[in-house]
Amino acid sequence: MTQRFRADLAIIADLIPEGSRVLDLGCGNGDLLQLLTQKGCTGTGVDLDPGNVLECLRRGVNVIELDLDTQLGEFADDSYDFVVLSRTLQTVYKPRGVLAEMGRIALHSLVSMPNFAHWQNRLRLLRGRMPMSKDLPFDWYDTPNLHHSSIPDLEPLFASLDMVIDRRIPLDADGHRHRAGNLGSNLLASSALYVLHARR
To answer: Known InterPro entries for this protein (predicted)?
Structure first.
């Protein structure tokens, strides 16, 4: 049976050159790193959930159980070519600190995050309810998401850390490239994927 991967993970895999060393933060079950082995990439996953770590080990994915907020100092400067943080930035306590560590660990980063300002979220707020969607699928009392951001709110954070945006790829609710591209992305995109490099 053919393995099915999230659409946005396939986009991320396409953006990473063959043979790259990749650190996947919040790697989940290891899907991205498994995809990247098909391109001759080597990598390490990091996750705090014991179930995810066990699943990675079962699949032969190299994984370390670490806290992204406090333990990224375990990785040396420029020890990887790319660091990936996919749909995870909103769940950490210190997003700025995690991004700064990413820029130290690798020159290139890929970061994706749900767009809280998506039109469906705005409509739900107008109805007096907290947003729920494919990218924000949790009830307010049971969500792992600690931070919510719009696209215009997120990008100055990158700039303040000397992380240069090489590409912004708006995504639809299913994780595919949005048909409208960057046109009206803060209203239309369910999430956004960024290709960044650290200014050194």
So the answer is: Methionine_synth_MetW, SAM-dependent_MTases_sf
